[in-house]
Amino acid sequence: MDNLENKITNMIMYYKGLCEKDPHNLKAVIDFGIFYTQLGKHIEAIEMFKKALTLNSNDYSIWRLIGISYTKIKNYYNAVMYLEKAYQLESNDYISMNWLGKCYIEIGRYEDAVNILNKSFMIASKEYVNWRSLAIALYHLNRIDESIDAFERAMELNKYDYESLYWLAVIYKEKYEYKKAITLFKKISETDNDNYSVHFNTGICFFMINDFNNALSSFNKALNIDNNDYMLYYYIGVSFYNMKDYSKAIDYFNISIEKNNTYSLSYYYLGLSYYAAGIYDNSINMLEECIKLDESNKDAYVSLSNAYSAVGEMENSSEVFNKYKYQ
Questions:
Q1: d(CA 90, CA 169)
Q2: pLDDT value at position 220?
Q3: Is the C-alpha dihedral spanning 207, 188, 161, 83 positive or negative?
Q4: Torsion 273-274-280-282 (CA) sign
Q5: pLDDT digits over 180-202, tens only?
Q6: Mean pLDDT in residue range 30-52
Q7: Gyration radius of the chain's alpha carbons
Q8: Does pLDDT of 325 surpass 80?
Q9: Sign of the C-alpha dihedral, residues 101, 107, 112, 113?
Q10: 252-287: per-residue pLDDT in tens?
Q11: Which of 41, 43, 83 is nearest to 65 (CA)?
Q12: How far from each other are the two terminal CA atoms of the chain, in whole angstroms?
């Protein structure tokens, strides 16, 4: 490790020496910036590339290097400014176009992203990453069918592009084509079994088609990766509730509430679970908490009315039911 650090230090001193010896040595300044880039020192790289611009402001590749470096520190607005200048200087520079498209997506300029990426395809049409970027921009413009086509094109060019595959799975999930989404999520998990989002979304898809056993299997895989998501505990709880395992449902809803005590549906289903288990006082408490958080939940009023009725508090039951009628 020390030997590597010494080599890096020596290279930095070497480039500094070159630049100090001849401040107008453009190649040395650019090479120094590229070396900083390779070290992940993007701020230092930007400084060197900007110094290079003072030596030649008409070289589009320097503007491009600065723009790309800004993307590495997630300063997309500055990246756009420099990449647009690179494109202005060289309209056939598809690399600048591609990076510009990605940056436009990051700052929400999706129409601009589509336009610039389509121009880049006229020069280089087989860059799978750019098809993916185009697909993402189209997705955000709600041009879903075109987005699917673009993601599929990216997959044709690179069958190992699992990011595009993930996007496709998410889109099919949002289109309520859960079985198709499950097939794609499972394909991703074959090579990336430690991906929380893949297992969680697979579980959601199984949940939505009422396959609660498989939903729980996927949710548990997600739980082994990250046990801090209150929504995961919520969906596990609802799965157990639908399977009539109210004791386990109660356990998971309580954990969900520990993680986030402002999500009204956790209280609602916990109240239903207590009611189904015959623990009516707890049911009343949870349903009241639900209504405090969300007064528009009509089903909660009906369930609370039933819970009051179950403990013989008919006056409270009637009062709550009347509130439900006026919601």
A1: 37
A2: 97
A3: positive
A4: negative
A5: 999 999 999 999 999 999 999 99
A6: 94
A7: 28
A8: no
A9: positive
A10: 999 999 999 999 999 999 999 999 999 999 999 999
A11: 83
A12: 68
Instruction: Kindly report the average pLDDT of the chain as a whole number.
Output: 94
What sign results for the dihedral spanned by CA atoms 71, 77, 82, 85? positive
What's the whole-number mean pLDDT along residues 149-159? Answer: 95
Which amino acid, 147? S
Q: Which residue is it, tokens 């004791």?
A: 247
What is the longest distance spanned by two Cα atoms in the chain?
93
Residue 229, pLDDT > 70, answer yes
Convert the chain into a string of H (helix), E (strand) and C (coil).
CHHHHHHHHHHHHHHHHHHHHCCCCHHHHHHHHHHHHHCCCHHHHHHHHHHHHHHCCCCHHHHHHHHHHHHHCCCHHHHHHHHHHHHHHCCCCHHHHHHHHHHHHHCCCHHHHHHHHHHHHCCCCCCHHHHHHHHHHHHHCCCHHHHHHHHHHHHHHCCCCHHHHHHHHHHHHHCCCHHHHHHHHHHHHCCCCCCHHHHHHHHHHHHHCCCHHHHHHHHHHHHHHCCCCHHHHHHHHHHHHHCCCHHHHHHHHHHHHHHCCCCHHHHHHHHHHHHHCCCHHHHHHHHHHHHHHCCCCHHHHHHHHHHHHHCCCHHHHHHHHHHHHCC
* Residue 316 clears pLDDT 90, i.e. is over it: no
Name the phi and psi angles at 209, rounded to 5.
-105, 20
pLDDT of the residue at 90:
96
Region 75-96: what's the mean pLDDT?
Answer: 96
Q: Measured between alpha carbons, how far is 126 from 147 in angstroms, rounded to an integer?
A: 17
Asked whether 255 and 275 are in contact (CB, 8 A), the reply is no
Asked if residues 303 and 291 have their Cβ atoms less than 8 Å apart, the reply is no
d(CA 104, CA 78): 11
pLDDT at 313 over 60: yes
Predicted pLDDT at 317: 82
Do 30 and 48 touch, CB atoms closer than 8 A? Answer: yes
